Amino acid sequence: EKQAEEKKRDWPLKLLALVCAVMLWFYAEAEKNPLMDMQFETQASVTAQELEIMCLGKTGALMEASCKMGCICGGGTVQQQEAAAAYGRSIGLAFQMIDDILDVTSTAELLGKPIGSDAQEDKKTFVTVLGIEEAQKRAKALTEFAHSQLDAFADTEFLHALTDALLVRVQ
Q1: H/E element holding 81?
Q2: How far apart are CA 9 and CA 132, in angstroms?
Q3: Could you count the other beta carbons within 10 Å of the beta carbon of residue 94?
Q4: What's the pLDDT tens digit per position in 11-58?
Q5: Rg from Cα positions in the chain
Q6: For the segment 73-95, what is each residue's pLDDT rounded down to a tens digit?
Q7: Residue 68's closest CA among 59, 79, 52?
Q8: pTM above threshold 0.85
Q9: Backbone conformation region of residue 26, classed left if phi is above 0, alpha if psi is from -120 to 50, else beta
Q10: How far apart are the first and last CA of the chain?
């Protein structure tokens, strides 16, 4: 009984330590990537793998950290935390691919922001590196992988719907 009470008392501190560790990881990742972005602007070409690495450290890392922290705070198992992290990375990267596509194919009225800004700034995007069709295929594959990661959890209808909505969004 005393051990159970100690465990309860220690839980908030352990939770805080885990959340802090995830946040420190995110900030370390996020700090590296603006430098990559600037470096890419001066490079003649960038590979899809290099672009993925950069985006995984930005949008992917933000989504991964958010999903993993939610799982940690909800008392998820280590397996569930890993699935949540993989889910976040996948939807983060797919989100960025779709964002790059929308910057070329959408309208300012629909998107709610200027379009074509990536091209004007000579940014390397998934569209410039892969083309629209291949970027769409990869975003779809990442979305399917994200769906598979939700198998680690119960009651995921909302997350499945959200995952699909991110792939077909127009804004």
Answers
A1: helix 78-105
A2: 53
A3: 27
A4: 566 666 666 666 666 666 656 556 566 666 666 688 899 889 888 877
A5: 19
A6: 888 999 999 999 999 999 999 99
A7: 79
A8: no
A9: alpha
A10: 54
